[in-house]
């Protein structure tokens, strides 16, 4: 809705993934700064008069009432010619709330967060809270404290506000910040409290006990009997409590506890015959490989607004909001000019350019990853892996993951292979279906499918020059530690200089664990037969290899590639390759590292236009991203399966020479 008399003020505002609707503006005469020239219009703080207690009762009441109206209904003001509305909590924050260095100022970025909180979270009966991610120095902890305090002190009596952070010590620090802010609030925004001037663990809004010296009885006044406390970082710390507001501070940095499970607990604490409280979860994200960032990403993903439960809530009940680090950035550029001007508006283009320039100047991979997480430009920056033990270029992997989210989802087809008419050892066909075990990017033309040759009475694949398969299998129905490992098979199409952009890529993925290993074994035979390719199998688990032999497909089993050979293994002619030795493992890592550098993420080669790689299997990219060479390889089935395919593709395939004609009878020259 456009209101011309208000300089085309638009009541509809887009914030993150949501659209909010602002209330109708009041009459022009009731809007602050209406009589000031444009350049002097800005948020002007209201100060507590030093002599207010000498005023008469009516004058003091009028002053208090005006401040209460701003805090409950919000505040309208002109700001450099722009009509601005801020919520009551935002007004409390920038006019009366004390943070490090003084009272906060008005900024456009914080304004948007407060607006989103009120109109999409606080007033929304289908929202249990908000997960808010942004860069450092945004003031999110102080904002959380302000929202918590404002919520608890405005509700009817017996309300409970809580705080959790990444440790007990950190939760205590957040609580102490709230106590400091509470101390400096004006008296009319401070409910009756317990009288403790420096609360250690609870801020209690109850009347101090008094003793009647005659009857020795306690007397109580009309008070809230509400309180705000903090708890340890354990998942069940607030289990069973009823919470009207709970802060979850730095959820992405907690590497000791399962923050995802903790959110599961507190989301029930804000329910009591409907949603009675709200969760404010916030963080910059650190240490993806240790679990903090991974759990935070699960919370983020399950708060997506486009996947709703039947009751209208998101999967987790929370909403989500990402604020890029360049919005509300109060740092200064090289010339000493702040990116946020005197009116609180951000020069986002200049701020963003500064962040990008800083990134380009960083040469260390680990420092660049840290910079991206601390000052994210895109939401993907928040969750980029900080794997310090990875030999792979995780930046290129993240580039590929982000790029893949922009391409059509039907590029990869899901389905299963099957024998013609269900009869084994006939022709193999592919059946697309959503619940299939295979993901296929490319298939050979019909005439090159199921191609084989017979040598010495045995079948051999006839298209080995085109590609090969790699498999990290499993044999047992259950593992010793009861953790089920998947079989991971990848198909790799070898590089063809005549098809440079369609070859040298992974074209098949199978990451699955059928209830019987025999199902997986037969799946591998059908895939090998369909493509006419050899398969290189990790041979410590012998079941798949034995199955190929029993079924007459030993000719499809690839022997150990030359570059992985040791002096001992050169004498062996067994199929497959054991991944227990250092030589084989390092060969696999080197092959993978080389492939990622040359074919994943942004590819920039001299004389060519920059382009993105074509690795479209998310499980593989995620497995590469998490790979830690100091951990057991049982977590990295996809990395091993794909690495075996790469090793197999590098194996030298000698051309088959035509056999000479043989004479079965001795011949003698005829003398004339």
Topology:
Blueprint: E1 2-3, E2 9-10, E3 12-15, E4 18-21, H1 57-73, E5 75-79, E6 82-86, H2 88-95, H3 108-122, E7 129-134, H4 140-154, E8 160-164, H5 168-183, E9 202-205, E10 210-211, E11 218-219, E12 226-229, E13 245-249, H6 259-269, E14 278-283, H7 292-301, E15 318-323, H8 348-361, H9 365-374, H10 379-382, H11 394-404, E16 413-419, E17 428-432, E18 438-440, E19 452-455, E20 458-461, E21 467-472, E22 487-493, E23 505-512, H12 517-531, E24 534-537, H13 543-550, H14 582-599, E25 602-603, E26 611-612, H15 618-626, H16 637-650
Parallel strand pairs: 7-14, 7-15, 8-12, 8-13, 13-14, 21-24
Antiparallel strand pairs: 1-2, 3-4, 5-6, 9-12, 10-11, 16-17, 16-18, 18-23, 19-20, 21-22, 22-23, 25-26
Q: How far is it from the N-terminal to the C-terminal residue, by CA?
A: 115 Å
Largest sheet, order of strands side by side? 9-12-8-13-14-7-15
The strand count comes to 26
- The SS-based structural class is alpha/beta
Helix content: 25-40%
SS element count, helices: 16
Which geometry do the CA atoms define?
A: elongated
- Beta-sheet strand percentage? 15-25%
Largest sheet: 7 strands, mixed
Low-confidence segments, given as residue ranges, are 211-220, 477-482, 653-667
How much is the average pLDDT? 89
Radius of gyration: 33 Å
